[in-house]
Design brief:
- The complex is a heterodimer of chains A (114) and B (110).
- With 114 residues, chain A is mainly β.
- In chain A, 0% of the residues lie in helices and 53% in strands.
- Chain A contains no helices and eleven strands.
- In chain A, the strands form two sheets. In chain A, strands 2, 4, 5, 6, 9, 10 and 11 form a seven-stranded mixed β-sheet that branches. A four-stranded antiparallel β-sheet of chain A has the order 1-3-8-7, with no helix packed on it.
- Chain B has no helices and eleven strands.
- Chain B starts with a strand and ends with a strand.
- In chain B, 35% of the residues are buried.
- The chains are: A mainly beta (114), B mainly beta (110).
Chain lengths: 114, 110
């Protein structure tokens, strides 16, 4: 069965631009969560969507937003990019959400902001 | 503030040399303690979920245990392919988010 697919895998943007990242979950999974991973802060929770509804949001500014479509695919958007937004953005899907902690992660989208 | 702290930051072992990784947590109303493995350039891969003190889970050379304040990941007779970063995470009662520790980078030399 296909895993979690994230696109694009790598991208370079400049300060002030915006970026949209895409995540296709494992077929049948209704929960998609997003995490930011940096060497200094580790993995930090951004938000989780379940059946198109945002169930929880992490402590990130409003420049970070997301959505989930009826087919469970999800996108996250970062507007007005800052240098500190350079990170690996990971998407994870699960059947029922984080209840069991069994998340299936994609390989991530590595964003570099210049 | 809820926290998950892992130690050591990095660990070098010889092949066959058993050891343990530590994960301590301060989460009110813990609703699960989770272990993941992350290889370079990859997303984390789920290993175990532990729910209550005294619980143990095993998978090949790995065994995870949980007490009221910490969890241990025991690695018995490790092989070079066990080299990876091991992450633990907790989930609190009222939240759908996982709080991750900073990880332990394990290197097993042949």
């Amino acid at each position: 069965k296909a895993g979690v697919t994230q696109t694009p895998r790598y991208l370079i943007k400049t300060r002030g631009q915006q970026v949209t990242l895409s995540c296709s979950p494992i077929s049948g999974h209704r929960s998609v969560s997003w995490y930011q991973q940096t060497p200094g802060q580790g993995l930090q929770f951004l938000f989780e969507y379940f059946s198109e509804t945002q169930r929880n949001k992490g402590n990130f500014p409003g420049r970070f937003s997301g959505r989930q479509f009826s087919n469970s695919r999800s996108e996250m958007n970062v507007s007005t990019l800052e240098l500190g937004d350079s990170a690996l953005y990971l998407c994870a899907s699960s059947l029922r959400g984080t209840n069991t902690g069994e998340l299936f992660f994609g390989e991530g989208s590595r964003l570099t902001v210049l | 503030e809820d926290q998950v702290t892992q130690s050591p930051e990095a660990l070098r072992l010889q092949e066959g040399e058993s050891s343990s990784l530590n994960c301590s947590y301060t989460v009110s109303g813990l609703r699960g303690l989770f272990w993941y493995r992350q290889d370079p350039g990859k997303g984390p891969e789920f290993l175990f979920t532990l729910y209550s003190a005294g619980e143990e889970k095993e998978k090949e050379r790995l065994k995870a245990t949980l007490t009221k304040k910490e969890s241990f990941l025991h690695i018995t007779a490790p092989k070079p392919e066990d080299s990876a970063t091991y992450l633990c995470a907790s989930r609190e009662d009222s939240s759908y988010k996982l709080i991750f520790g900073s990880g332990t980078r394990l290197l097993v030399r042949p």
